[in-house]
Structures are given as structure tokens and as C-alpha cells.
What does this fold into?
Amino acid sequence: MSKNSTNRRNRLNRIALVPALALLGLAVAAPARAADLSVAPIYKAPPVVATPAYNWSGFYLGVNGGGAWGTSNWNSAGSRNLSGEVVGGTAGANWQMGHAVLGVEGDVDWSNLKGSSTAAGCPAGCTTNNDWLGTVRGRAGYAFDRFLPYVTGGLAVGDIKAGTPGLTGATQTNAGWTAGAGVEFALTNNWTAKAEYLHVDLGNMNCGFNCGGVANNNVSLKSDLVRGGVNFRFGGGN
It folds into this structure.
């Protein structure tokens, strides 16, 4: 065999060896790559932290205002309708146990509730006024997180003023009762807003001869209030 033939065969063998070495390298590297993939870290999304439910416990102060309407009955002159506005301040405290919320609330309002009418026993007109109203009530509600519907009831105290032109009239502070319901919503951790309805019965007073010249001239006062309010809470929240 000539020298040239031998050299040519050696070059062909080297060329054929290159793909074989490449395949061998891939075969060696593949398990290592697979091993690297098998221990690669698994990334998970951070857990979602649930926001705690709103806690209604704590002391609060606030303001309230709204409208009122009612009736006043005179023995000597029948009944008359009353209407007006109320505005004042509120203080209270709540205790939450699970979803149940129990509390006590008090308020004092300036009142412009009044009404006048004429009758056979009161030809010049009989007027009934209520200038102020205070309540001390219990509250019981069921909390849906930041939303609190409730019922309420307790003591009501206010004045009854009755008069007719030409006579001195009379004023008396009476204690009665009140009951109603409302809803309150937490705007922020400390601020809440509410709307409520109250029925108030202040009973009656004997105006006597000072109102219409009748000895037993009883004057009663019953009213209904619709009020809104804003409270600032000390404690509670999320």
C-alpha cells in the first residue's frame, strides 16, 4: 500500500471519530444536566394573609343630627302634629363577643320639635314644644365585619312645653322610654357612620288652668326620630 493511501485512510478515520466523540460528550453531559434539574428550587407564591375582621369593642364619641315628627294630645283641645330638627352629641361603648356586639349609648340633643293648632277649647291656638331630648340606651347588634345592624332601647328624658296666647303655659321635664333600630358602618379603623330610627314617648304633663283654663288639661308628647351620625372610636378596628 502506498504512503499516500495510508495518510488518506488516517484522515478519514479522524473525521469519522469527531461525531462519535461529540455524541459521547452529549451522553455524558445529559445525566449531569438531568441531575441539576432534579434539584432545582421550586418557587411558590407567598401565602395570602387574610385581613382580620373588624372589632367593634371600645369607647366612642360622636355627633348626630336629623329630623323628628310626632303628636301632642291635649284633653281640652284634641291632637296636633309636631315636626322639627334635632342635633347633638353621642357617647358610648361596645363589647364584641364573636359576631355579637353589646353596648350602651347616651346622647343629648337640642330639639326644635313643635306644633300648633286651633280647636273649640283653644280658639287662639295651642302649641306644644320640645326643646331638648336625651336618651340612655342599650344596644345589641350582629357584626358582619365592618357592617353592624342593631336594635336599641332604654330611657328617654326631655321637656314638654305647652302654651296658648294670653295664658302663662307650662314646662315640665319628663322621663319616658325610647326604642328603635339602626345600622353602623366602619369607614376606617377609627371612624364610623350610622343611621337610626327611634320612637320616643315622654308621657304627659298636667298643664291645668295655665293651658286653656281646664283643671285636668293633660298634654302628651310622642315623637319619631330619624338621625344620622359620625363616631370616633378609641380602640377596636382591625
